[in-house]
Write a structure and sequence with these properties.
Chains A, B: This is IclR family transcriptional regulator. Chains A, B: Keywords: DNA-binding, Transcription, Transcription regulation. Chains A, B: It holds the Pfam family IclR_C. Chains A, B: Residues 82-264 form the IclR-ED domain. The structure is a homodimer of 264-residue chains. Chain A is globular and about 60 Å long. Chain A has 264 residues and is of the alpha+beta class. Chain A has a six-stranded antiparallel beta sheet, with helices on both faces. The longest helix of chain A is centred in the middle third of the chain and has 21 residues, at 91-111. Chain A has two domains: 5-85, Arc Repressor Mutant, subunit A (Orthogonal Bundle); 90-261, Beta-Lactamase (2-Layer Sandwich), CATH 3.30.450. Helices cover 43% and strands 19% of the residues of chain A. Chains A and B meet through helix 1, helix 3, strand 1, helix 4 and helix 5 of A and helix 1, helix 3, strand 1, helix 4 and helix 5 of B.
Chain lengths: 264, 264
């Protein structure tokens, strides 16, 4: 990413630099208070989760509701349909998903396993698309959800083909353990990434969860670095990684080629 | 929807009622400036589209970027990945999609046509999910996109099973024409909705676009009104509506039953 006018310190004085969080920061906290399991949340609960005063939650919620970003539901609030509409326009998701979809359906049909598409965001991967296979276990991932990059095949595939700063950031963040097999030491992760760079493929051998294995390939963008990763996941006892590796690898190369041609 | 404290005029004084648009209103306008075809937009273009001063766009964009709602891309801006994440948590979409998915894949497989799931929002329908069939034309809809309710089978199916105020709002909004067959007179729309109520099904006979036909059923919620609609669309010359009607109807009844059992 190029450094632009956005980071220019000369512009900093124009920002709302007061000690109190800005309206945008508070609105963002309010929207971010909703988790995957939350149906509706009341004002008191939102105040508790965000640390905002109830009167502030009331005032912000009324405005966010007027713009469709929240919706009233009985006595509580839920995320608004407009967020879904805006989310569907997110370009990084849109163009990658369109390019990846046919490869994902092919992989899903050919293996009976689950095909996934993910991008890196800081130290985590965000899943853009998941196609659940006919013979596949429940996975810890969900569309729009996050997992620590170092603990997943998609994350390792992207990191292996990312600038060194991306790997440094992950190591600085600390390597949390998701299963007894998660790589949690910096040295081992660096060696693993070197192996992945050489092979062009990454494996998750029950590192994101016991009983689950995964093979992933990076999707290489026009700049020669990974912009995403494509993977196939299944039961550790049933999905033979060496057997599906070539299929996943081929799909990744084709996707990189087709995606590099279109807009990023 | 129950009237709540949100509409209480006693709370109105707490709102930011100044003549100038609020930070949330301006941020909402900025996010809303991006359309389906936009890759990235520059500050000047965003200022032009929103009517905001360039300095305001700069300041808001910097803050929205800090919270992941926008992303810098070269010299321009694009909608941020966080909007995609938040959009995936929108409950109205989540629970309906999960309930509808198996029925949609069945309809798609059985007919080769395209299965769609949509909800009403004001005078328009918003598409929550689209499963493109193997023998289906390009449709004017897209996931997260909108079409006028009166011109689509899903919209008419929902309106026929909605409170009268919903129909009144659509008529007040004016019946725009999408094709030479769109219903554009209030009297004809009211008669059409009465027919749909009786049949439990709605048809789009090239009303949303020439060459396309569609059969839709309402998804009835716990309150006895439509919360969504499920449809099958295909080529007007090839998709025989009477032949698929029973399949769509059956799927809609089953979906209404299963959805009424879960949380709205």
């Amino acid at each position: 990413m190029r450094a632009g006018e956005w980071n220019d310190p000369r512009n900093a004085s124009a920002a709302q630099d007061s000690a109190a969080p800005s309206v945008i920061a508070r609105s963002s906290a309010l929207l971010g208070a909703f988790g995957p399991g939350d149906h509706t949340l009341g004002v008191s609960e939102l105040a508790r989760r965000t640390g905002l005063a109830k009167s502030t939650v009331h005032r912000l919620a009324r405005e966010l509701t007027a713009h469709g970003l929240l919706e009233r539901d009985g006595g509580g609030l839920r995320l608004g349909l407009r967020l879904f509409e805006l989310g569907q326009l997110v370009r990084r998701r849109q163009s990658l998903r369109e390019a990846a979809w046919p490869f994902m359906t092919d992989l899903c049909t050919a293996t009976g396993a689950t095909a996934q598409l993910a991008v890196l965001d800081g130290t985590e991967v965000v899943y853009l698309e998941i196609l659940v296979g006919s013979d596949a276990p429940d996975l810890p991932s969900r569309v729009g959800g996050r997992l620590p990059a170092h603990a997943t095949a998609v994350g390792k595939a992207i990191l292996a083909f990312s600038p060194a700063v991306a790997v440094d950031e992950v190591l600085r963040g600390g390597l949390v353990r998701l299963s007894s097999r998660t790589i949690v030491t910096p040295g081992r992760l660096r060696r693993e990434l070197a192996t992945i760079r050489e092979a062009g493929m990454a494996y998750d051998r029950e590192e994101s969860g016991l009983g689950i294995v995964c093979a992933a390939v990076p999707v290489i963008g026009p700049e020669g670095t990974a912009v995403a990763a494509l993977s196939v996941s299944g039961w550790s006892g049933r999905l033979r990684l060496p057997r599906i590796a070539a299929a996943v690898h081929t799909a990744g190369l084709a996707l990189s080629r087709s995606h590099a041609a279109g807009p990023g």
